[in-house]
Design brief:
CATH topology: Transcription Regulator spoIIAA
CATH class: Alpha Beta
Order of helices and strands: EEHEHEHEH
Helix content: 25-40%
Strand content: 25-35%
Number of strands: 5
């Protein structure tokens, strides 16, 4: 399976919708798209990971590197993961939790909540 990244904009946020599998072969696609967005001056980024079916350590590495990049440019990063009650939950959420890095990210249930500055992130 491949990784697909589509970009949109909502309320001043760059929204990257990611679907497919994030692994050693495909995760550099996401890394490049994030770098392209930052190079274009977009420093508030939402990664909608609700369509990601599989994520290995290289995918997690890209997420952590993205967090680091956004912090270095005084930007903001927010992740979208399906609600805990969603069917099968979120694979990415489980992987981040198992590795103990979920708490590093601001996680929201959907794009509307993520781009709303009045909304609070979900607890780790």
């Amino acid at each position: 399976m491949t990784l697909r990244v589509t970009e949109g904009k909502q309320r001043g946020w760059a929204v990257l919708r990611v679907s497919g599998e994030m692994d050693l072969v495909t995760s550099p696609v996401l890394r490049q798209r994030v770098h392209d967005a930052v190079a274009d001056g977009r420093h508030d980024i939402v990664l909608d990971l609700s369509g990601v079916l599989f994520c290995d350590s290289s995918g997690v590495g890209v997420l952590i590197a993205t967090r680091r990049l956004m912090r270095s440019c005084q930007g903001r990063l927010r992740l979208i993961l399906p609600a805990q009650g969603a069917v099968d939950g979120s694979h990415v959420n489980r992987v981040l939790g198992a590795l103990g890095v979920r708490r590093l990210f601001d996680v929201y249930p959907d794009v509307s909540a993520a781009v709303d500055d009045e909304s609070s992130s979900l607890s780790a």
